[in-house]
Structures are given as structure tokens and as C-alpha cells.
Amino acid sequence: MFSAGDCHAAQGDGEVCVTGIECPMAFSLRFDVRKGRSLKPWRYQFVTPPGPLQSRSDERGYFASTALGPDLMENAKNAIRDVIDWLVVEKDLSREDAYVLCSLAADLKISQIVDQPNWGVSAYLALSVFL
After folding, report:
1. In terms of C-beta density within 10 A (0-12 exposed, 13-18 middle, 19 or more buried), how is residue 109 classed?
2. What is the pLDDT tens value at each position of the chain, 131 positions in all?
3. Which of 21, 76, 120, 126 is 20 to 30 A from 15 via CA?
4. DSSP H or E run through 105
């Protein structure tokens, strides 16, 4: 129920054309099984080590949600709505507090525009806000 691939050695945020520097890559993944729960597609948590191509890094990692579709504004709204839903369930915040936290700490990025007419917008929330 999981797949990984399409590894890029380098690619700017936004995947503006079909060309990224494709490469073979080895990686390790850790999964937590949570019985009785389902995971929405395009929702993920990750940690990225600091490096020259990272404008920001956070040792605790990020929660992110991506929305795809033909309307960038609607995708941005849906990505934030999904982060709000996650904050309500996982961090026990009210919807209002989760919305305010997203306004203060979430970053929206254009994830891809190469798959016209489906554009991607991702909302990232650094997990260090919960220290």
C-alpha cells in the first residue's frame, strides 16, 4: 500500500518542466502501524537534514499535505484544511486554534506545475512548533 520512486538529485520547488536530475537512490523508511485509522493520500511527515539546497531545516521534521487539481487557490485552501484536520486530531487543537497556528507557522509551496491541468500546492508545518 506504499510506493516510492521518481528520485531526483536536484529539482527546484515547483517542478516547472519534466526535467529534474533523475538518479538512482537508496533510502530507508520507517512506518508506524495505527490500527483502526486510515491515512489520507498526499499526507506525510518527514525529516530533512540540513544541506546547501535546504533553505530551512528542522531537526524535528515537518508535517505536510499536498492538494492537486486544476485550481491553485482551491488547492492551497485544501492543503491548509488538511493540516487543520491533522492538528485537531493529532494535537488536540480546536479548529480555530489550528487555523491560527497555520497562519503563523505553515508554509505554502507550489509543489508542481508540470502535470497540467493538475497543479500541486503543499502546506508544510515544522514540528518544532510543539516543543
Report:
1. middle
2. 566 766 766 766 656 666 677 777 777 777 777 788 766 777 888 777 666 656 666 778 899 999 999 999 999 999 999 999 999 999 999 999 999 999 999 999 998 888 889 999 999 999 999 98
3. 126
4. helix 95-105
The C-alpha cell at 63 is: 508535517
Rounded to the nearest 5°, which phi and psi values hold at 106? -85, 145
Distance between CA atoms of residues 93 and 85, nearest Å? 9
Rounded to the nearest 5 degrees, what angle is found at the Cα of 109, between the Cα atoms of 101 and 20? Answer: 150
Angle between helices 95-105 and 72-90 in degrees, nearest 10: 120
What residue has cell string 502546506?
123
Partnered with residue 122 across adjacent β-strands are: 66, 109
